[in-house]
């Protein structure tokens, strides 16, 4: 049975890395003290080692040992043997490119479907949806495809940001961008504000955290859903 | 001899479409009263016809007739016969995808090199650089390549935005994104603020408009250049 936390962000303003989620994670990873970390998204271009150290620091607070997937000779075997997985944020294109390069997409789908607890933040959440067509990241590398894990039957927009009515900047608002997405694609998009996450238990998907989320469905006006909402019907 | 205006944006806050550039464009397009418009970037998902009408409205003020490239049976011939070209903004991925679909990349390079005046705004400026790896747009479609015209030997970042020190949002700043780009790529990036443009005359590239631009070179601290700066040495 699938068990996932699909979080908008790793970090809330003024708080430490993963801090706001640690209590949740203690319960989520209760059956293992060892987490397989996928550092491929390399935020700020840092190395896999540096990023894994950062994850280890946070997980030390709940007494979990973190090992980076790059430390294994065979990353597929590492995934299959993992008792808990965490895919960190950074650049979604870099993450997806590396997953394809290492031919890990189908193995990740298998282990998630078989019930290995999966935590994703930001880029690590984007890949849980159907495609990365709704990432906010800069396309700094060209991946072989935008298709991703499709564990949830919609797209994610992490770090969802409401329009700033005082802005004089002429770049598109997030809502405009997602509406443009729907000129070319029909799957729903869940705009997850920082501090929100989706909790997946088997076929059930619930919105968690303190905030509302904004849902964009094809040919429908965007709407808000409250925390606690069951989003399992969204497809 | 190449003649180009590569503009950060089509529109300044509180002003009409292309308004701030019209005086410049009167001179730039002085040898023709007919402009070939490429509406492929479809801002907000609007149709090619709607977008062409919008361009026509602005160009009417300087007595130019606008025709959309989609109105021609043979878009390659339309490009070759054009006396002036304008590629409007919108979504860079949608624009690039359509250029590849219609096999127009090399024809555009030819006509620009042969001297047809070319105006690009936003997405239409992005494609003048080496790749679209530094676009701000959402990747709502998957183009066959991120490589673009390479008329200037660097990348463009239009709508360049300085970090907002009061922001509590944890998404990456523009500067962080471009630095991540340089973890994987080595060409320079010109961050063009709204209201700035590059003027290309043959091999000369000058920064125009009222504002500074921000230059990002591989393995160097980012720096500011003043309007009027000759950027021909940047590669």
TrEMBL record, chains A, B:
MF annotations from Gene Ontology: dipeptidase activity; serine-type peptidase activity
Key word Lipid metabolism present: no
EC number: 3.4.13.21
Keyword terms, alphabetized: Cytoplasm, Dipeptidase, Hydrolase, Protease, Serine protease
Cellular localisation: Cytoplasm
GO BP terms, alphabetized: proteolysis
TM segment ranges: none
CC terms in the record's Gene Ontology section: cytoplasm
Reaction catalyzed: Dipeptidase E catalyzes the hydrolysis of dipeptides Asp-|-Xaa. It does not act on peptides with N-terminal Glu, Asn or Gln, nor does it cleave isoaspartyl peptides
Enzyme type, top EC level: hydrolase
CDD domains in alphabetical order: GAT1_Peptidase_E
NCBIfam families to which the protein is assigned, alphabetical: PRK05282.1 (NF003642)
PANTHER family xrefs: ALPHA-ASPARTYL DIPEPTIDASE, PROTEASE S51 ALPHA-ASPARTYL DIPEPTIDASE
Assigned protein family: Belongs to the peptidase S51 family.
Protein name, UniProt field: dipeptidase E
Organism (species): Gelidibacter maritimus
Gene: pepE
């Amino acid at each position: 049975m699938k068990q996932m936390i699909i979080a908008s962000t790793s970090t809330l303003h003024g708080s430490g890395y993963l801090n706001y989620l640690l209590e949740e994670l203690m319960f989520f990873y209760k059956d293992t003290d060892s987490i397989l970390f996928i550092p491929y998204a390399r935020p700020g271009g840092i190395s896999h080692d540096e990023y894994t150290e950062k994850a280890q620091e946070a997980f030390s607070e709940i007494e979990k040992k973190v090992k980076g997937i790059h430390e294994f000779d065979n990353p597929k075997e590492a995934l299959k043997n993992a008792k808990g997985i965490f895919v960190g944020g950074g650049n979604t294109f870099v993450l997806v490119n590396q997953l394809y390069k290492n031919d890990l997409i189908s193995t990740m789908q298998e282990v998630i479907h078989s019930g290995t607890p999966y935590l994703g933040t930001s880029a690590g959440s984007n890949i849980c949806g159907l495609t990365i067509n709704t990432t906010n990241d800069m396309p700094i590398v060209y991946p072989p495809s935008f298709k991703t894990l499709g564990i949830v039957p919609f797209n994610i927009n992490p770090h969802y940001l409401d329009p700033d009515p005082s802005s004089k900047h002429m770049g598109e608002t997030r809502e405009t961008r997602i509406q443009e997405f729907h000129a070319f694609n029909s799957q729903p998009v869940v705009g997850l504000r920082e501090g929100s996450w989706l909790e997946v238990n088997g076929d059930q998907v619930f919105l968690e955290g303190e905030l509302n989320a904004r849902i964009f469905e094809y040919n429908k006006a965007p709407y808000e859903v409250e925390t606690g909402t069951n989003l399992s019907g969204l497809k």
